[in-house]
Amino acid sequence: MKTLLFLLACLTATVSSAAIVQKAIPYEHDGVKLEGVLLYDDALTAAGPRPGVLVIHEWWGLNDYAIAQARRLAAEGYVAFALDMFGAGKVTHEAKQAGAWAGLFYGKPRMAERAQAGLDQLLGTGLVDETRVAAVGFCFGGSTAMALAYSGAPLAGIVSFHGGPIVASPDAAARNQAKFLICHGGDDPFVPKEQVDQFLLSLEEGKIDYQFIVYRGAKHAFTNPEADKLAALNHLDGIKYQPEAAERSWAHMTLFLDELFKQKR
Fold this sequence. Notes:
Number of strands: 8
Number of domains: 1
CATH superfamily: Alpha/Beta hydrolase fold, catalytic domain
Order of helices and strands: HEEHEHEHHEHEHEHEHH
Helix content: 40-55%
Distance between the termini: 35 Å
Structural class: alpha/beta
CATH class: Alpha Beta
CATH architecture: 3-Layer(aba) Sandwich
Number of helices: 10
């Protein structure tokens, strides 16, 4: 009996010692003070380097939603770093302000460079297997993940959730090292069919390994439970949370990452 109680006590201590660690990480890029969030399971990282995932927020800034997605990834065994694109504490619910912040990056080298600064933080933790790293982005973050991949960053793959597609130039395709998973809302009014067609054609011509999954009826921001509130606040008809598409796209991402990192569940 004493032996059994001892074993149960050891098991309880082992289980309780495994926890998701969350750390604020201050850093800087181009004179801008940034603050990302690092999350990981300390029981898993104690055994050695883990696959890493860079999480890139929507145009609202590094908010609770983005951090929650990083936490989910950490709970699945990844070392996740939710980067900061705009500056420490710069978060908004106003589309006008969000658009102004995001507008400083679209179509500019700064988008990939700022994302690379976040990737450097993830790689610099010492917790990550540098050969097994991916970037996952939401809306603006999905576009940023593409820009980062096109820059030649050492990524095994990227996942874009309802991100605006960026056409791959021949040079960008040649630099790219990543496989792509694009999770797209079938009723996203912010991404015209012509834009999608040009994007897919560029991936084909650039011989980029990609999966493009369309979720019927899903609008922009379909993974974000706060999308309906944000839509009402900003009088935006094009964004809406769709639980089914959110769950399916997360499952598709999980399978994609398993394939990238050769993991079995």
